[in-house]
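Work through this protein:
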Amino acid sequence: MNTVLLSTAYLAPVEYYAKLYHYGHVYVEQYDHYVKQTYRNRCTIAAPDGPLALTVPTVKPDTPKCFTRDIRISDHGNWRHLHWNALESAYNHTPFFEYYKDEFRPFYEKRYEFLMDFNDALCRLVCSLIDFSPCMERTSAYGDAPLPADDFRERIHPKKDFRTEDPQFRPLPYYQVFQSRLGFLPNLSIVDLLFNMGPESILVLRDSHDPLPYHASAPSAS
């Protein structure tokens, strides 16, 4: 069975969901030391003026090294309202935002204490809307996944180029509402694909990924 090891992610990019679709078993790391400025608490959407990063604020840990599983969401800056307004502004004119918005709105009204719980619940919603059910579980220790496992915990990263980090992933162009102005923007948040393509999102995930696994370096113990 093909196995992949991923970090948690907030409305993760298309690349991440292509892994969920193509791998037989997914382990989501919860015992890594939390790092800022990653997809753990950030997503990128297509706003009218170009790519826009949305960041979930987190409570500063009591210790320099804190497990991701223990990271709490902060209420600082009215971020829920700002994120929902940004999503509405970016996707209100897409073909499927009206159809799906009531599924997403509660996530910006309810308060989740832990980042991983928030991310997991959003991820499961997205998978159900795209109509596939990945076999996912959290790690029970750092890097705890059956070998061989492809390790993308730090490869799927907003500051790294997926073209060099992930030869499996070849983003299939799809319709984007601002494409005539911005050109096609690859590997945005999964909501960009979902709101623009609706039920056809699963076909994009299928065709954006090499079905044969590229075996990245095995996860190391910590």
Remarks:
- The mean pLDDT is 93.
